[in-house]
């Protein structure tokens, strides 16, 4: 049996997908498979949940309007069962069809992620965060996982007494850490100085996760914020088991759509890529919007952002460029190829050096 070194044969992205599948499977997550198509109306009803507004649609043979799937989470929720006391743990590596973040054109993109749906508790939230950190570390050891909680912002927005449009604008300003315009908007809306100070303090707050309970305590307003503080404190108490506390930060400006997300939300970054390559959180509100009574937590990894990413092992197309001429014995060439492959090396046998190929070393047979 010929041994192969998958690290040299796979691209960086393929290695990441292969390793993530193994990791999620080891934690009891089962693979989820779905069709390439869904009813167009299904995505239109939840359009603001999708990344980007463009949906590729077409007419089926029976005249119904279908769409190439731009997302997997919605389909998982659609097929989830509401069963008391149990959880469905699923992971997926599916092609989705959406506008690429890098090319800004429609593209078939491999999306990876996991979802835990059902009777969600702190164990599931902590495990999901731990797996998110593991996933980022697998891609690049130099990563950061930013964490927030929707409960703090929701409580302060309620206390500020803002209208729907003003509320949406303030959320945008908080996400951008725009203290000046946020302050001006709150003053215009007649928000009290105490609540304004708390909102502005929360907007600029970014501390190591271990310091979050102490930093957040003075900003608590209302029961939702008290519950959020308790959840963050419990998370901090369990963070030592993660082993990567120095990579985790509490960033209050991190927010997802309040129509879908509640509780803990998070985003992961790696060196060399300015956008978050991983995003997730607890989305019980999305479950309720889709007629489900269960809770849910999960995350997605945006593999299109990793296009061109190199983990070092994929800097070469092949380990050995084996050059031979027409006078060489065919058996000798094939024998040498098999010997090199048996050593775990990737080989390209060529009569001349192909344009653009990257190789670690060359080896010649014959002239």
Structural class: alpha/beta
The separation of the N and C termini measures 31 Å
Task: Give the CA-based shape.
Answer: elongated
CATH fold label of the largest domain: BirA Bifunctional Protein, domain 2
Count the helices. How many? 13
Q: Give a quick account of the main beta sheet: strands, pairing sense, barrel closure.
A: 9 strands, mixed
Q: Average the pLDDT over all residues and give the rounded result.
A: 85
Strand order of the largest sheet: 1-5-6-12-11-10-7-9-8
Q: What CATH architecture of the largest domain do you see?
A: 2-Layer Sandwich
Task: Write down how many β-strands occur, each being a DSSP E stretch of 2 or more residues.
Answer: 15
Task: Give me the strand/helix succession.
Answer: HHEEHEEHEEHEHHHHEHHEEEHEEHEE
Given this structure, which CATH class of the largest domain is correct? Alpha Beta
Low-confidence stretches: 1-9
In CATH terms, the superfamily of the largest domain is Bira Bifunctional Protein, Domain 2
Radius of gyration: 25 Å
Q: Tell me the strand percentage band.
A: 15-25%
